[in-house]
Specification:
98 residues; Jelly Rolls; five-stranded antiparallel beta sheet; Cupin domain-containing protein; RmlC-like_jellyroll; RmlC_Cupin_sf
């Protein structure tokens, strides 16, 4: 599943489109596509994760933190910490785990 496919699926989607790009015993890479205004609800990760914006603009929410991230910005997501993501524009992010 490529990023172009995710973007195509977003045209009809009502929630973020999540696909695994790569998975090994050491980690995985997820691609998540958003239309403007879509929200990835509160959740936690159990493994070290880096968020990388590859298209658009999102806001990462964690406690009192509301960090806006644009093209090629990165953010280290703490393990076992509740967080969420909101798309400020049509966006694609990668989550690099492991």
């Amino acid at each position: 599943m490529t990023i172009n496919t995710i973007k195509s699926l977003l045209k009809e989607a009502t929630k973020p489109v999540v696909r695994v790009l790569r998975k090994t015993e050491h980690g995985r890479v997820l691609a998540i596509g958003f239309r403007e205004g879509m929200h990835l609800a509160d959740h936690q990760t159990k493994v070290p994760t880096r968020l990388l914006v590859v298209e658009g603009n999102v806001t990462y929410h964690q406690d009192e933190i509301n960090q806006t991230l644009s093209l090629f910005d990165e953010y280290e997501i703490p393990v076992n910490t509740t967080h969420a993501v909101t798309a400020n524009s049509d966006s694609v992010i990668l989550l690099i785990q492991g």
